[in-house]
Each structure stands twice: as C-alpha cells, then as structure tokens.
C-alpha cells in the first residue's frame, strides 16, 4: 500500500496544516508568510500531478490510492478556499469559492450515487474537469501569495499584475466548474430521472 504515489498523496495531506499554519502567522512579524504559504501549496499541487502520473508509469495503482488521492485533492482545495475566504472577506472571492467547493461536494455525491447504480464510469473525470483543476490551482496560488509589498519585475509592479491574473484564473475556474458540473449531470441525468435505456 505504501508505494511512492501513496506516499506523495500522504505528504500532500501533511502539507495542508503546514499551509494553514504559515497563512495565519502575524504578517507584521512575518511579512514573507504569504509567499511561504503559496510555496507550500505549490509543492502540494505538484504532488497532486505527480502521484497519478507515477501510479500509471510505475504500475503502482492501488484501490487505496484511487480512494485517497481525490480525497486529498478535495481537502486541500477546500481548506485553501476556507482560509482565503476568511482573509479576503469579500464577495468577489467568496462567491466563486462557494461555487467551486459546492461543485466538488455535488460531484462527489453524484459519483457515489452513480457507483451504487453500477455506472460510475459515466461520471469519470472529464477533460473540462482537468482544465478546471489546473486553472483553479493557479487561482488559489495567486490568492494565497497575495504580496503585501509590490515587487518590481522587469519594470512592472508584480502585485497588481498578480491580482489581475489571479482574478482571471479564479473566474475562469468558476466558469469551467459550472460547465463541468453540467457535463456530469447531463451524463447522470438518465439515471437521476429514471429514463435510462
């Protein structure tokens, strides 16, 4: 059970409280806390991509990993959104966070129900869902970084640039979230409406 992919997934779970710890350090004493939080989340995101790749490459896929990996992903994303919603305290972050986390709960419940119906493959991860995850991770990285001093990068102020990019990613992820949710429910609708062939 404790192969390389599952160890990486476990490491991702371990990084979640580390991320929260750094995020809530007093910024007056630790002005670098946001960047460290971003770095921890970035490492966790890398393990998210790496564990699945290695499981396939090394032929180390296990039932435990198939269960544990999506749980680790969802907990990491939910916790990251909780801390940024708490910190930002504005509807421009809170509403997309509700949509994205709510979608994760809805799709998880839908997959569980479809598994009971014997057709979990009907709501397997879609290409849109994969794009949504990638864009969502970029948005969260920007929200967690939140430079408290504007850094100069090749003559540009990095803070404002990062803010714009972050909100573009956040609302793109929200749009992809809604789109992918509709795709999943469309696939499951014949079973939900009891009109399957």
Automatic annotation (TrEMBL):
Family to which the UniProt record says this protein belongs: Belongs to the CDP-alcohol phosphatidyltransferase class-I family.
Presence of the UniProt keyword Nucleotide-binding in the record: no
Enzyme Commission number(s): 2.7.8.5
Any one of the GO BP annotations: glycerophospholipid biosynthetic process
Database matches in NCBIfam families: pgsA
Keyword set, alphabetical order: Lipid biosynthesis, Lipid metabolism, Membrane, Phospholipid biosynthesis, Phospholipid metabolism, Transferase, Transmembrane, Transmembrane helix
Gene3D superfamilies with a match to the protein in the record: 1.20.120.1760
Transmembrane intervals: 7-26, 122-144, 164-185
Catalytic activity: a CDP-1,2-diacyl-sn-glycerol + sn-glycerol 3-phosphate = a 1,2-diacyl-sn-glycero-3-phospho-(1'-sn-glycero-3'-phosphate) + CMP + H(+)
InterPro entries referenced in this protein's UniProt entry, alphabetically: CDP-alcohol_PTase-I (IPR050324), CDP-OH_P_trans (IPR000462), CDP-OH_PTrfase_TM_dom (IPR043130), CDP_ALCOHOL_P_TRANSF_CS (IPR048254), Phosphatidylglycerol_P_synth (IPR004570)
GO CC terms in record: plasma membrane
Protein name: CDP-diacylglycerol--glycerol-3-phosphate 3-phosphatidyltransferase
Top EC class of this enzyme: transferase
GO MF annotations, alphabetized: CDP-diacylglycerol-glycerol-3-phosphate 3-phosphatidyltransferase activity
Source organism superkingdom: Bacteria
Record pathway: Phospholipid metabolism; phosphatidylglycerol biosynthesis; phosphatidylglycerol from CDP-diacylglycerol: step 1/2
Subcellular location: Membrane
Mode of membrane association: Multi-pass membrane protein
């Amino acid at each position: 059970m404790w192969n390389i992919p599952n160890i990486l997934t476990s490491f991702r779970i371990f990084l979640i409280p580390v991320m929260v710890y750094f995020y809530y350090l007093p910024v007056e004493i630790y002005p670098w806390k946001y960047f460290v939080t971003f770095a921890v989340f970035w490492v966790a995101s890398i393990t998210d991509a790496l564990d699945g790749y290695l499981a396939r490459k090394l032929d180390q896929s296990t039932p435990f990993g198939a269960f544990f990996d999506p749980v680790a992903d969802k907990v990491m994303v939910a916790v990251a959104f909780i801390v940024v919603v708490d910190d930002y305290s504005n509807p421009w972050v809170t509403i997309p966070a509700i949509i994205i986390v709510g979608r994760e709960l809805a799709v998880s419940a839908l997959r569980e129900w479809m598994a009971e119906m014997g057709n979990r493959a009907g709501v397997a991860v879609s290409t849109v869902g994969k794009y949504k995850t990638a864009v969502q991770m970029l948005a969260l990285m920007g929200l967690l970084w939140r430079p408290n001093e504007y850094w100069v990068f090749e003559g540009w102020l990095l803070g404002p640039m990062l803010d714009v990019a972050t909100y573009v990613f956040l609302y793109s992820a929200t749009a992809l979230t809604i789109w992918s949710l509709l795709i999943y429910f469309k696939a499951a609708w014949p079973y939900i409406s009891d009109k399957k062939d």
